Amino acid sequence: MPATVSTASADARRLVLGAAIGFDVEEVRVFVESLRANGYDGDVTMLIRWPGLRVGRYLKSRGVDVIRVFQTRSFSRSVHAKRYAIYLDYLRARSGHYDQVMMADVRDVVFQCNPFAGIDSPKCHFYLESASRTIGADATNSRWVRGCFTAAEAEALAHRRISCSGITIGGTAEIIAYLEHMVAKIAAMPLRIYRTIGHGYDQAIHNYLVYLDPDIDGIVEENNGHIATMALEPREFYRLDAAARIHGPDGRLYPICHQYDRFADIRAAVEARYAK
Predict the structure, then answer these.
(1) CATH code, 84
(2) Among residues 29, 61, 85, 100, which one has the fewest Cβ atoms lying within 10 Å of its Cβ?
(3) pLDDT tens digits, residue range 81-95?
């Protein structure tokens, strides 16, 4: 069962899921400390590599439940792909416990507000990356898509903006439906896929679900709104204040910043803020 932090707050029926397999304390600290510091007091469950004693103790001390995953080098299913099946099983067993769920990357995410604030629709919310790059124009995303799908499907995705698979937020039933489709697509991938196109092919499947699967009725959100996915944006677009909070050029404070670590000065400031 998840480690419940509160049963009375607005977050009592919310869940944050993160994958930190292979990470130690320093690689999860910003995620966890910023999440708790910015008003979220609901449940958090994180995947860690077995036995993960040190990181497990730290997470437990912050009210984070852990699932220990025995992970060896895989030539068929990477950690990035395997997490979805674990999430699906976990949520199916607890579908009546939560109304909203966020699935998030861990190492490069910092929270600046409650991550669920302002999200009222139960639909899956999918978040775009920079407007400067389409799937077809990005070498990595294009390779993943062409490796996973037919030429016609790859062509249909080529002109689309990149939706980042790193963070998805939605109602529990809607997240479960998304995960069912994701897990089915992953299971159908040839076993050689990990060797031929790399570990991140779940990103290709994510974009397929967002744009081409008629059963996934989600909301596609612009970048630098609820989430700033920063890696493909110019450094000058973002401003750090004296408290190491990340703003846009108009002063907007982003509730969630993803890939902040791509900029060395921002990474140093954020990590210093949440250092022990």
Answers:
(1) 3.90.550.10
(2) 61
(3) 889 999 999 999 999
